[in-house]
Amino acid sequence: MLFKTDAEKAFGVETYLSPEMDAAIKLWGQLESGKPPWLKESDGRTVAFWNTIVEEWAKLITQNIDIKAQGIRSGDMPEKMQKIIDKYFLQNAKDDIHAMVFFGGVMAKWDGSGIEFLRPDMFLVTEFDSSKEVQAAIFFSYYSKGKKFYTKAEWHRFEESTRQNEAGESETVRIYHVSTKAFKSDNQDDVGREIPLSQTKWADIEPEFWAENLEKPLFRYIKCPVYNFIDSDSPLGAPCFANCMEEFRALDIAMSTLGKETKNSSPMMIVDQSVIQYATMNGIELPEFVADVGNLDAGNGTGGSPVEQWQPTLQVTSRKEGINFYLSVIGFKCGFDPGYFVFDGQSIQATTATQVRVTQKRTADTALSYRDVLDKPNSNGEGRTGAIHDIAYIINAMLVINGDVAPTENENYELFCSFADLLKNEEEDAAMDLQLANQGYMAKWKWLVLHKGYTEEEAKQMVQEAVEESRSNEPQEGLFGEE
């Protein structure tokens, strides 16, 4: 629920949600609930293929994702940060990335004890910079009690304030300001009237909060790396399937048509009306595949049989071709390789790992572009940047602000992120490295570490034992070595 006009009036600020983006967000919500606007055209049926697209991307993006927080110096910050990352991000990473891909972006925000991920119907943007990075926003929370509905609105933004320093000189400081208001209504679709926070379950929240020395907001909008053709001026993102609505509609109609044909494909015995009357008079129950079509030989004088068989002709091949056509177009427009989605299985035959890497390179490149939103090298060549690092910044800041760690612990962490290599073939790489090890170009203990999971110490010990055993089995000269 978005109360755009009410939020603007309550805080006296303009929000940036165009009618086009508002309509698009509502459409994506319809799709998620399995109720696309073309249901009547597809006989009330949908395969909801957008869910398949998004779920596949979520799995590829987060495959084997791991995040480790390590300390720069001794202290509690890394351990406390790691616990929050594990619980509020890694534990549900695929689901949160699923929401990001489905709605073009999600907002990561501190929720009092960890990080929550909000869909675009849970916040309004009030300010963004020239790079379309969101700098200020209003966030909504809801709950109901009895027949009353409660709304909390938090406005996060940076403000400049003037004050005197220790030398008595005037200076301008940048302050992070959060204003929180509560509303009560008798109608779920109406924000209602403003009430004190003390009359709600948010009574422990201060109406006004200020913090200094923050470089970034205490939230991060994680946006899909997809061009927003719906509203190119909007700071909000669009899902990869946003330009596939016509193909989704056609796919649903094609699948529905095939389903109806299949349902009606059973052989049918067409019988004369006299047969039906005889069965009725004698209490005989006819099977479902018997149909009454009147008098079969009425007026033709042929004296034909009172029973005829009808076998419908299925258009399965042509239907499958049409379905695969739409799947191919949808997959390609969403960033997958041609043939990634096929109605009757994978059509691309790749006999070697090298061919697999080549044929699926477009898919891998798209997944990597999503991963870059989360973690990538900094443009200045120093360190890493991305949404995961901004989330760590929020956690760091809030742990200090809340007094969970000492101020001296501020920024006492380094973040390391890793993902599965989508283009890596374990068997081929292991065989190649084994060949290098046997030829002396790679240490054998290193092969054990890379491909068998041993620690360096364990691997070196194994290799040493193997060498010693090999030497003990060699023929020895002297008394016992003589033949």
Task: Please explain how this structure is put together.
By secondary structure, the protein is α+β, with helices and mostly antiparallel strands. It is 37% helix and 20% strand. Strands 4, 5, 6, 7, 8 and 9 form a 6-stranded antiparallel sheet that branches. Strands 3-2-10 form a 3-stranded antiparallel sheet. The chain has a 3-stranded mixed sheet with strand order 12-11-13. The relative contact order is 0.12.
Question: Helical residue percent?
Answer: 25-40%
Stretches where pLDDT falls below 50 for ≥5 residues?
298-303, 345-356
- The best one-word shape is flat
Give the number of DSSP strands.
16
Protein structure class: alpha+beta
For the biggest sheet, the summary is: 6 strands, antiparallel
Number of domains: 3
- DSSP helical segment count: 14
Query: Distance between termini?
Result: 92 Å
Mean pLDDT reading: 85
- Strand fraction equals 15-25%
Radius of gyration: 33 Å
One letter per element, helices H and strands E, the order comes to HHHEHHEEEEEEEEEHEHEEHHHEEHEHHH
Summarize the structure.
The protein is built from 14 helices and 16 strands.
List the helices and strands and how they pair.
Layout lengths: L3 H8 L7 H14 L16 H14 L3 E5 L6 H12 L4 H11 L1 E6 L4 E4 L4 E6 L5 E12 L2 E17 L5 E16 L7 E3 L12 E5 L6 E5 L21 H19 L4 E4 L1 H9 L8 E3 L14 E4 L5 H18 L19 H7 L1 H14 L1 E2 L6 E2 L1 H15 L12 E5 L7 H13 L5 H9 L3 H17 L11
Parallel strand pairs: 11-12
Antiparallel strand pairs: 1-16, 2-3, 2-10, 4-5, 5-6, 6-7, 7-8, 7-9, 11-13, 14-15
Helix pairs in contact: 3-5, 3-10, 4-11, 6-8, 12-13, 13-14
